Amino acid sequence: MRNLVITRRYKTSDNAIKQGFNKSCCFILDKNGQLLIYDWTNSKLLQCSNLNSLALEDKAEIDPVDITQIQYVPEMDFIFLAGTDGTFFQTRDPVFREGNYTELFKCEQGIERFAVSPDCRRVCILTKQRTLLVLTLPELECLVVHSLSTVEEDIASYTGSTVWRNDSRYFAVNVPDFTDKGSPKRQIHVYDEDGILYSKSQLDEFEILNDLLAWQPSGGLLAVFGKSPHGNAIIFLELNGLKRSHLQLGHTKPIENVSWNSASDILCLQTSSEVELWTRSNYVWMLKKTFSNSSCQTVRYCSWDAELSFRFQIVYDTACEIYDLAFSYTSGFSAGSAMTVSWNGVQIYCTPFRDNSAPPPYGFLQANVDSSIVEVLVTEFWDGFLCITLKGIVLFRREDLALTIVDQISFPHTFLSSEVDGWIWPNFNTLCCSCNGILQTTYLNFKLGTEENSSNDNRTCADTQFVDEDQVNNVHSLRLFPLIADIQKIGTNEILIETRNNFLIQFNLQSKVVKTVLSTRDFSLSNCTIHTMKLEDKIIIFLHNPTTRQLFISSSEHYSSEPLKISGDCASIYVFGDSVALTTLTSLEIFNKFLVLEVLQHLADGNDLDAMKLLVEKKFTRKVEKGSVIVTCCVNRMLEPSLILQILPRGNVETICPRPLLISTIRSTLRNETNEARYEKIMNAVRRHRLDYKVLIDEMRVIENENPAASLKHSLKTMVDQVKDSHSLVLLVTDLDEEHEDCITIIKDLLEPHLQKASVRKLNIEEAYLASLAKLGLLEEALLSHLIQGEDKDQRNVVTHRVKFLSYYCNNQDILFDTSLGTYDLGLASLVADCLGKDPKEYVPILEELNQFPDFKRKFKIDDKLRRYSKAITNLIRDQSTHNPEVLKYMERHRLFTDAISCIEELLATSSIEESKQEDCPESHRNRDQLKTLLCESKLSYGRYLEEHTKFREAMILYREGNQLDQAIECGIKCGQWEIALDIFHSRTFTKPDLKALCEHILDDLEDRKNYSGAARVCEVYLKDISRAVGYWIRAHKWVRARSLSHLLDKTEEDMVLPKLMEAGSERLEHLATLTQEVSQHFRRWQVVKENKAKRELEGGVDDFDNFSDTDSMTSYTSTRSGSSASGKSHRTAKSKRKHEKKLYSMKEGSVHEDLGIVAHLWTTFDKIQQELKPDTSELITSLWEFNENKLAKELGLVFDQLLIESDTAIKKIWAFVLPDELIEMKYRIPPIGWCTTWDKLCLHDPSSKAMKQ
Question: DSSP letter string over 988-1010?
């Protein structure tokens, strides 16, 4: 199924060597892949090198030695030669100068053929007397002397040959066998490395015709030229001499040379006038390429590169050509169907994969042409393919089960198709190719019709144009690629051209506009196959090297950047729409355009590692058979993309349908508005492949963002109108979740009009509507709809089906029954229970019991049963037969305080209860007095509940509304709202002793809270006790206020403020000095510990031991627990956690994590300085200045400044960077929030201020 294509052609000019090559010339390929030609007749050594400008150059003069055979061993870089007189030479000098070669020995019998083993340890020689010699190298010890024939008179008439296997363990000899009477028959003898006979060929119906012998590099087969009962053939023998298979030739030309490429997958056959390349697929040999010279010169030599399996050389009489080859699948879309074409000489095998998946290499459709096939082109705008042969163009159409020739066009005599590469068919009337490195476009006028009235063998394509060479950057050895944005696009005028200077350019065939797509210096395009994807105004380029299996990506937006390697194990790649599929050794990988754009964005930002990480995480991966490669991808009429894989080397075909490709097809089809049945096909495809329907909705949102006119509602409406079977809508709604609630709502609204059209009602439309209600949680609305209750009694089966359908969206059937019961319609509940098949013994007694209660009581019972407590308390309050204690008990049990209070207040706000009793249902409502009493009791109950849960402020408000003032005052004091408590106290009648007792109670509470300012205000305002007020203001450090009140006291008590202020300043000064010393000490200790840790890390030690001893104070910083740790959850209790933190933050000298303990302690100290000490110290210093205590104020400010400086120095060192240690808490990894060295100080304290200088 695979074909061979030429990716590069290197050619010397015709008649490059005027005298030509004769039969005495010897050809070898050196280790660098350069062709060396020894012309012994003219004593010349020629070299064919420099692939970019291939030419034959005179390398040097050589000695005029008469040489019969030359062999180059690339593994050891030795050249071995045999002279006509039996002399055997060895050299490393390719020039073969005199003195630079060694004569190893001279065979008296002469040397007819020799072969040196690849490891240069053995040489086998076939003498002219038909004797086999095996010698060791370099010792030249003779291991075997074996006579191959005893008939001396016939020896000169037959030649022999010998060849080694690549592992140097066996060699084979092709010699005639004279044991039988008559003409001798050739046999293949296989010997081991010591010359011991291993096997002889056994051919019954086959005959070996000459001395050709080629051993497959993989070591499996020996190829010889022979004859079968049906004509000439290449016979393949195994190591044991048995025939494995044969290749039947279609001509009688004698084969002069047989050779394999280094990968053992291409066989070359050389005749005197042409070279054939054969490949094997599923044990069938197929002719893929035929090479011949345009001047009909004789083929002198052909060979494969020793290392590069894709490089092939041919030498003609006066010219040399080098080809780079690659395996490729000739496939494409033909009239909406994927088609793959392979060929064998003049036979074409065509497989349209939509209709049939025939195993390779035989196709479902076959045809023949009149000359060797050069190329076959399959395009989306023609239901068939175009075949290019050596003579002309043949256009085939696929009709039913046959291929019909629609048109034939002959090439002009001046046009040599064998010299042309890179054929593409971008649009119906245009063919493009590369002729001698120049872009050539041929405009064809096809006459489409039947074979009888449109086929014309004499018509030639004369309308040919050559694009100016300068117009496409001096194109040489170019390749052409059609640039198609979408698989459904019909033709294109955009092509890509690879230029000689490693450029990839975009060329418009009509406007002749040239645009650079890729420009790279270090990256070689010559060894890569190129695949493109067009996304908006960007061209994404994928470069695949089949030899190294590497895949690179680039973009026209950043054409000067080097391509990024995205895979090192890519066997094949295929671009399908906006997705890319590739195969590795054992897996299939797919990534879509969104992932490609993200990767390219990372590349543009220089984040290559992030791009590769993103690609690995988000790409789709699926296991496939080992050796799978992508043939093509087809999409059938049901939108099913099928990826065709061929498993090599067996050749069998596998078809898979990856979901990412299905998503790509859906994405493309959604945008094709001309297809009026697109949603029907999409829904069916999604349903068949069990794809999540959310993908469809998400893509609709993308379309809405791209085109606001195509709103989500519009897309959903089109979908509802086009889908015939609404069961697909049911599945769609079922797959949607809470994030798509708006979509479900739109679908529900769109389905409602269809329910009214009974005559044109769609299939399963009712289920789709009920499903949308169920997904929105509107089960009650669904049960009350006319679909359940509006049907006639004779439609009971329909109702039963719909009720059961609704039950599918419930976790169990009881949910639907409870929902029907929640409608308070006992008849509906009975209907639902019956449809669900519930046992009447279970639900009938319940319904009968409920039916006995009054209206509100029955509703209360139902709500209570369904645990709808909010509705239950409402109906219980409305029921007049229920007493207040029962309501309060139910309210307290289920904590329905706010619901009950809201319901009562709503009833009180309505019209008069008495009027309601007379007009509505007097037996079911309470009067206004009852409601007021119930409201007051409800608030008091709620207040008690809040007080129990320490919500004193809310409880105070409820107690006050419930007229329980004592409890309200007590709750006000407990929550610190003593002003409100006093306000409530003043709202009733009281005596002075009562007020004093309340104030003393408040003072006790404020002292417990250390709210001395509040206590001072109580004494000053309410108790009128100035002396106690002054004392509280002093304790609150409100010195100015205390001093102003002290003037109202006696002289003995007036002077009490200043001594207290001085005492507070002295205590603060001592505290700041101590704190400064402590910060400095801990910081120095932290530096020592960090230095010790750094030294141990440099010495390779482990940081799990004491700093001062060999004994650890902590064996480990993690706790050990028994049992399985698979869950990863911590089972540490609160007590053990505190113990663990205490050990972790221990500041004991020498402990394991002493540095962490110091950091945590300093962080707490600095945070306290910032949050507490700064405002308190600033206020204290200000008061000292105001009391004219300048000395103490200045001294205190200087000490505090020193503390801030020491602290800031430590912070900058410790938290220079975020601490990386994961053991410490997150808050300790950064400095305290809001830290700064500035503080609110008076300018009197600033030494630089003018006030201080004065």
Answer: S---HHHHHHHHHHHHHHHHHHT
